[in-house]
Structures are given as structure tokens and as C-alpha cells.
């Protein structure tokens, strides 16, 4: 598996496990966890912790309202979670593919629910809308080999999860699985040698900042 450098914060993972994120961000974290065993294990541990807390709270309520003998539900839950499981009967993880231009990418199966993709192209960049939640929008974004997005900043936040390929900007080099969160304090110009496919979430259009690229601001919504 690719060595992943950039991950969601522990706070974001906890919000995801607790069901507090909007769909666009929850999908982003889920996709990252499909590619990153480290964060997948963290989410599973947080989920177990939350389940344990809920169980304890419910058992205390039940004991308070009942005259029945007290049952140690915490020990019972821990015993259940420590049981060995036989996963030999489980189906293998299904795969899903996304095609754009002359390339086909294998992506996490979660994306199969958004299979009616309509691509819009602007130069080397193609975008397919997935989710709209008021001002927040998620997309699949494909940048062709040798492509670049001119220098820009963000009026809101921009989350980029790299699903395939690689790209680089002034801050570093990013590979499959990397989870990059930027805001108005960041300014960059992403470019890719081999091409890349990303899942992105934004809550405002890009704002181009240098030279002739400023002319793109009236149509910045095409990338949002």
C-alpha cells in the first residue's frame, strides 16, 4: 500500500465515528479509511469507545429504573468484542471503476453510489459533481498528465483526497490516499506529471491570485 503522509485530524475522525459530519465530509473520511489502515484502525477504536460509553449509559439507566439484579454490561461487551471471529464466509471487497478521457481508475467501492457522472472540462482539468449541501460541494476532480491549476487561494476550505496518481505544490508532494485540508491561509498551484484523480470538498469558489490567472476568477465556479 502507498505510504500515506497526510491524514484527517483525530477530531475529524471522532466526529466521523460519531455521525456528526455532513455527507460530503463523511464520504471523504470513509474513502481515506479505505486506503489507510492507520486511520481505519483509529475509527474502529473510537467507534468501540463510543459504543462502550453508550452501553454503560444505557445499562446505568436500566439498573436505576429496574429492581432486577445489577448486570455488568461493560464486562459482557468486552467479552463479546474479544471473541475470535471467522471471516472465511465474508465476500471479498468489491471494486468500482471510474473512467475519464482514455483512463480508467479503480476506486473505493463507496463511490458506486454516485455512478451517474457528468464531467465538465476546463483545459486539463475535468470535474464531476457528486454531492451538494447548501454551499458545500463535493466533486471528483481529474487533472490530466502535465496539467496544472493556476496559483489560487480559498475563500472557504478545500479538502482534497488523492484517489490515484500524484501531484505537487509549493508545500509538498502528494500520493494516493493523502488527505489535504486547506483554507484561506494557503496559496498554491497544484501540478501533476503523471495525472491524478481526486475527491474534493469545497464551500466556496477558488480565488486566483497571480498574473493572467486572475482572469479565471469569473469562471472559478467551474472548479467548485
UniProtKB/TrEMBL annotation:
Name the SUPFAM superfamilies on file. RmlC-like cupins
The ChrR-like cupin domain is annotated at 113-203
Highest taxon of source: Bacteria
Which InterPro entries has this protein been placed in? Answer: Anti-sigma_ChrR, Anti_sigma_zinc_sf, ChrR-like_cupin_dom, RmlC-like_jellyroll, RmlC_Cupin_sf
User: Sorted alphabetically, which NCBIfam families does this protein's record hold?
Assistant: anti_sig_ChrR
Protein name according to UniProt: Anti-sigma factor
Amino acid at each position: 500500500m502507498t505510504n500515506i503522509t497526510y491524514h484527517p485530524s483525530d477530531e475529524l475522525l471522532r466526529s466521523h465515528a460519531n455521525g456528526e459530519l455532513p455527507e460530503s465530509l463523511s464520504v471523504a473520511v470513509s474513502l481515506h479509511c479505505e486506503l489507510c489502515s492507520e486511520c481505519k484502525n483509529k475509527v474502529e477504536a473510537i467507534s468501540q469507545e463510543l459504543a462502550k460509553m453508550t452501553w454503560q449509559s444505557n445499562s446505568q439507566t436500566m439498573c436505576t429504573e429496574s429492581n432486577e439484579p445489577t448486570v455488568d454490561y461493560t464486562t459482557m461487551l468486552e467479552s463479546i468484542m474479544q471473541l475470535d471471529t471467522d471471516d472465511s464466509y465474508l465476500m471479498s471487497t468489491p471494486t468500482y471503476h471510474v473512467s475519464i478521457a482514455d483512463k480508467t481508475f479503480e476506486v473505493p467501492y463507496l463511490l458506486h453510489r454516485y455512478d451517474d457522472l457528468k464531467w465538465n472540462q476546463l483545459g486539463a482539468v475535468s470535474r464531476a459533481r457528486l454531492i451538494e449541501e447548501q454551499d458545500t460541494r463535493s466533486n471528483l476532480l481529474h487533472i490530466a498528465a502535465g496539467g496544472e491549476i493556476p496559483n489560487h487561494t480559498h475563500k472557504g476550505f478545500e479538502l482534497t483526497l488523492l484517489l490515484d496518481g500524484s501531484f505537487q505544490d509549493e508545500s509538498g508532494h502528494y500520493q494516493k490516499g493523502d488527505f489535504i485540508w486547506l483554507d484561506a491561509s494557503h496559496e498554491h498551484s497544484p501540478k501533476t506529471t503523471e495525472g491524478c484523480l481526486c475527491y474534493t470538498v469545497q464551500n466556496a469558489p477558488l480565488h486566483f491570485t497571480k498574473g493572467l490567472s486572475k482572469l479565471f476568477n469569473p469562471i472559478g465556479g467551474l472548479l467548485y
